[in-house]
Structure formats: C-alpha cells, structure tokens
Write a structure and sequence with these properties.
Layout: H1 2-10, H2 21-24, E1 32-33, H3 38-48, E2 52-57, E3 60-66, H4 67-90
Parallel strand pairs: 1-2
Antiparallel strand pairs: 2-3
Length: 93
C-alpha cells in the first residue's frame, strides 16, 4: 500500500528501485467476505487503522473495498432515511 511505501521506503531514505516488494509489503493482510455487512467492514477498518480491505469468496479475491466506498454507502443510506422522514413529517405520502 502507499502507507507501506511511505513508512518503509520514503521515510527511511531507501531507493524504490533497490527495495524488493517483499521487504515492505504487509504480510498479515486483513480481509472480508462479500457477505459481511458495511458495519463489520467499517469496524475492522477502524480497529486496525486500514483504508482498504480485500474481499474474498471461497478463497478467491473478488474485489477491494475502500473506506471511501463505505462512507459513500452510509451517506446514501442516511440521505434516503432523511428524505423518507421529511416526506412523513410534511405529509408527502
């Protein structure tokens, strides 16, 4: 990740061309399954200070989810609820 690069190459004054990826990569990669909820993903990201999570199904990589993806989803849900409440309050049913 860019965080791995920044911490283990740039900040240590190492050269990108001379540094093997295996020296800087995250080895204990956290991941989620596509059946996990938005809340579970956000909790895992928050607890582990992650910005991205691989999504696995049957041991296969099927995608990558970012904190931005999750925030957009939560905001969309909140906007929907707000609109529904406004309609209810104003009698727009």
């Amino acid at each position: 990740t860019e965080r791995d690069y920044a911490r283990k190459v740039a900040l240590l004054g190492r050269s990108s061309g001379d540094t093997p990826v295996s020296d800087i990569m995250t080895r204990a990669v956290r991941y989620v399954h596509s059946t996990q909820s938005t809340e579970e993903c956000m909790a895992l990201m928050t607890q582990n200070r992650l910005r991205h999570l691989p999504v696995l199904d049957d041991g296969r990589l099927v995608g990558l989810i970012s904190i931005g993806d999750l925030v957009k989803h939560v905001m969309s849900q909140q906007q929907f609820v707000i609109a529904q409440m406004e309609q209810y309050i104003t009698g727009g049913w």
